Amino acid sequence: MPVSDTVARDDTDAEGDRLPINELFASLQGEGKLAGVPSTFVRTSGCNLRCWFCDSFHTSWEPTHAWMTLDEIVAEVESLSPEHVVVTGGEPLVHDETDALLSALADDYHLTVETNGTLDTDAPVDLASVSPKLASSTPTPENAPADVDPGVWTARHEDARVDLDALASLVEHAAEFQLKFVVTGRDDLDEIESLVADVRGVADREVRDSDVLLMPEGQTREQLARTRTEVADLAASFGYRYTPRLHVDLWNDAPET
User: Fold this and answer.
1) How crowded is residue 196: how many other Cβ atoms within 10 Å of its Cβ?
2) Domains and CATH numbers, the chain
3) Does the annotation place 56 within a ligand binding site?
4) 194 is in an annotated binding site
5) pLDDT in tens, 28-60
6) pTM score, two decimals?
7) Is residue 51 marked as binding?
8) In whole angstroms, what is the distance from residue 43 CA to residue 24 CA?
9) Binding residues for [4Fe-4S] cluster, per the UniProt record (predicted)?
């Protein structure tokens, strides 16, 4: 199955223990509870969803990557200085080999997995950064990226974007977790409130308001300037945490940030 069509765990393009890597670089974590922490990012290619506002277009809508063995990835991580590693995507958990990578890194690094929350993992995870996708993320012909026809992804994304069992498993399994919502406006808050209540109802672990983070939608400084104040006000009003997007503030939409 080509990575561009990935809808579940599948890695049949690879021979052996390899992962499709879009980027591997050191920078600052830009989002969430660890914003500002120096981190090495391992960005896999391939995703089972298609958010219209995806900020890693070349891991989802038009995936690009090089196949790297787990040993090559670990060696590259070891050549960089951060003690925190962020495994991200795309959706890194669509690949079985991601579990093996996490296990290989677990003894030496703090591990964050950035995931959309539709798949779970038994591998060691220090921080599960879970970003459940709201109805406002579903691609349509009106909001899809330029020159992209969402086609079957409108229905596929909408059908797959929330999996309560996977969300509960991620919340329960990781040493720490955060539920990080991309917010496009006030209309998203009713769904966020409902989904947080649903997760609290199924997870065998407390989900505090401080574990729920609201993040403004925006891939450039100009876009964030239009949304950040409203989202910060919503976080203050509802008692949730606000998270910036430091990498956008600092480096705009440059790659490897």
Assistant:
1) 19
2) 18-215 (3.20.20.70)
3) yes
4) no
5) 999 999 999 999 999 999 999 999 999 899 999
6) 0.91
7) yes
8) 6
9) 47, 51, 54
